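Weekly structure sync, notes
Attendees: PL (lead), two postdocs, one rotation student
Agenda item 3: pending single-chain targets
PL asked that the sequence for the first pending target be pasted directly into the notes so everyone works from the same version. It is reproduced below exactly as submitted, 200 residues in total.
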Amino acid sequence: MLRRLALTAVVSLAALATAVPASTASGSISSGPVSSRSVSSGPVPSAVPTTGPFAAARPSLGPLPLPVPPLPGFLDGGEGKGTGEADEVLTRLTVSVENTGVAGADGTFELECGPTGGSHPQGQAACDRLAEAGATRAGRQELFRPTPEGTMCTMIHGGDATARIVGTWEGRAVDTTASRRDGCEIARWNSLVPVLPDVR
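Predicted structure, written out during the meeting:
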């Protein structure tokens, strides 16, 4: 009987000893303010995921690609577009001539320069004359300029020939008429030969 009581007391003491540390550990959490010393000084986890499926969403920055410049004309087959194209025709004139009395001189002719083209009977010579005049400031100003009103001109009648020139000369608009009614107009007509026919 005494042995059974002693064994029961030992078992009770062992169970009590086991329960006390567990209750002490669970009760050690304080509900009061946390001391700064109790905060762990270990590494703080990053808010940006470095692994897993969301890590791939982070862009990888690098040098921006440079724009590819356009190819020069001699590399792209001469089809490159830009300002001042080499094959652009800057001179295109329509020359209408009447009453010259010279066979084949009357009519309406097209003249293109750079390259030379059109139906003008003396196309290359006419383009050369235009280029010669365009090479000087005075030539550019005077070639198609009408005779100013009030100019004293000799009363020489050079014939009934008349002409009109309309179009573009070196990128400038042209619309002028010419005749041989007096000395000033005869001189002006002659300055336009061979764009106009030589009827002297």
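Discussion points:
- Residues 48 and 171 are 65 Å apart (CA to CA).
- The longest strand covers residues 91-98.
Action: rotation student to compare against the earlier draft before next sync.
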